[in-house]
Write a structure and sequence with these properties.
Largest sheet: 6 strands, mixed
Number of domains: 3
Oligomer: single chain
CATH topology of the largest domain: Alpha-D-Glucose-1,6-Bisphosphate, Chain A, domain 3
GO biological process, one term: carbohydrate metabolic process
Strand content: 15-25%
Pfam families: PGM_PMM_I, PGM_PMM_II, PGM_PMM_III, PGM_PMM_IV
CATH class of the largest domain: Alpha Beta
Structural class: alpha/beta
Number of helices: 13
Strand order of the largest sheet: 1-5-4-2-3-6
Family: Belongs to the phosphohexose mutase family.
Keywords: Isomerase, Magnesium, Metal-binding, Phosphoprotein
Number of strands: 18
Radius of gyration: 21 Å
GO molecular function, one term: metal ion binding
Length: about 425
């Protein structure tokens, strides 16, 4: 299986390089106009050119956007037949990968992924006289303009922005500046070696609260490596949990049909009608094609169907800044229902087998056990050799007990299959 919960990812090497050529040819067989972009990793040039070569060999025309966020590439796909992003998102620098998008911004569906997986083993190559063409294009400006046409952060407000040295550096600082926002920008230069771990977890952003308070900022926002994610801090410098940010977006936009994942807090169900999907923004996006006004997952992916069916961390950052300019975000968060959520992960090469042993139909979807006072989820990572355990309870004691139960079941299963 090539595709995980968010595209194709693996450590850089011959396997990925060979695969990228075949994936390009497989995409180009059906899609004859493809936009391509990449994050800032050092291997981006090699993989982008390899995919481009595969596309051209099938007669497909390629629109090259250079370094750009994932949602920017997905947005540009509306003027093409598909979008292709070279990124490993929040994974370490030695990883890279591929994400594929439809013209409406939605990630390739499971059926579309399966077709690619079948075709990569026997791609179709055209002759020398049926090769496609390649052009360079500015895909940043149309995306920026689309966001600014629908979102208006308060002019003169102060925002602390951490781009993490990734693809978000190409658009978010300029977008907020164009909106009249005063930004205190951290890690705002693109770099192939991330200045902080790319995943925007609270522990990787421990410096943000003090900077927000010192600068008198109305809020703080941070991206991962390809800026499809956005995490936020309130005006007191407190990290906002993903489920509470989703509730905030839902209330502000007056959208109360919400799609989220199986690892999201049960608090969301107290304020909205909820459909749950497996973990992964591609599943959320696919559900939103037929139901719901807004979607997201606790890790920081937010989808606004009126804008795009791709998780858009830039749109989310601008929208959050608009909210922070109008509402006291800290007070809004304080009024929301809260239940303790505990998370752990166990590194293991036997994650898939362990989940199958536990009875999960698909290891990367996980096994969720729920009761009246809480739940736990055991899920094999779709991008890394580890298994995650998440538990939520109405009290911390209940959450701790559920987490321990989940970890115990997982460790027993690993022993059985290893």
């Amino acid at each position: 299986m090539l595709f995980g919960s968010s595209g194709i990812r693996m450590t850089y090497g011959r396997t990925l390089l060979d695969l990228s050529l075949s994936v390009g040819a497989s995409v180009g067989t059906d899609r004859k106009r493809v936009v391509i972009g990449s994050d800032t990793r050092s291997t981006r040039h090699i993989l982008t050119e390899s995919i481009t070569s595969g596309l051209l060999c099938t007669g497909a025309d390629v629109i090259s956007g250079g370094v750009a966020p994932t949602p920017t590439v997905a947005y540009a796909a509306r003027n093409a037949d598909a979008g292709c992003m070279v990124t490993a998102s929040h994974n370490p620098e030695d990883y890279n990968g591929i994400k594929l998008f439809n013209p409406n911004g939605s990630p390739y569906t499971l059926a579309e992924q399966s077709r690619i997986e079948e075709m990569v083993h026997n791609p179709i190559w055209n002759g020398w006289d049926q090769i496609g063409t390649r052009i360079d294009a500015d895909i940043i400006t149309p995306h920026r303009d689309a966001i600014l046409s629908s979102i208006s952060p308060k002019s003169g407000m102060t925002v602390v922005l951490d781009c993490g040295g990734g693809a978000g550096t190409a658009i978010t600082p300029g977008l907020l500046s164009d909106a009249g926002v005063r930004t205190v920008t951290l890690n705002g230069d693109p770099t192939s070696t991330f200045p902080r771990p790319s995943e925007p977890l609270p522990e990787n952003l421990s410096y943000m609260p003090a900077i927000i308070r010192k600068s008198g900022a109305a809020c703080g926002v941070a991206h991962d490596g390809d800026a499809d994610r956005c995490v936020t801090f309130d005006n007191r410098g407190r990290f906002i949990a993903g489920e509470h940010l989703l509730i905030l977006f839902s209330r502000y936009l007056d959208l109360h049909e919400v799609v989220t994942t199986v690892d999201a807090s049960m608090a969301i169900e107290e304020v909205a009608t909820v459909h749950r999907t497996p973990v992964g923004d591609s599943y959320v996006s696919e559900e939103l094609l037929t139901w719901g006004g807004i979607g997201g997952e606790p890790s920081g992916s937010w989808i606004f169907p009126s804008h795009s069916f791709c998780a858009d961390g830039i749109y989310a950052a601008a929208l959050f800044c608009e909210i922070a300019g109008e509402w006291d975000v800290a007070e809004e968060i304080d009024q929301m229902p809260k239940y303790p959520i505990l998370r752990s992960s166990i590194p293991t090469p036997h994650g898939q087998a362990a989940l199958s042993h536990l009875g999960a139909e698909k290891p990367t979807d996980g096994l969720r056990i729920a009761g009246e006072d809480g739940w736990y989820l055991i899920r094999a990572s779709g991008t890394e050799p580890k298994v995650r355990v998440t538990a939520e309870g109405r009290t911390k004691e209940i959450a701790s007990a559920l987490l321990a139960e989940g970890e115990s079941r997982l460790k027993a299963a690993i022993r059985e299959v290893s």
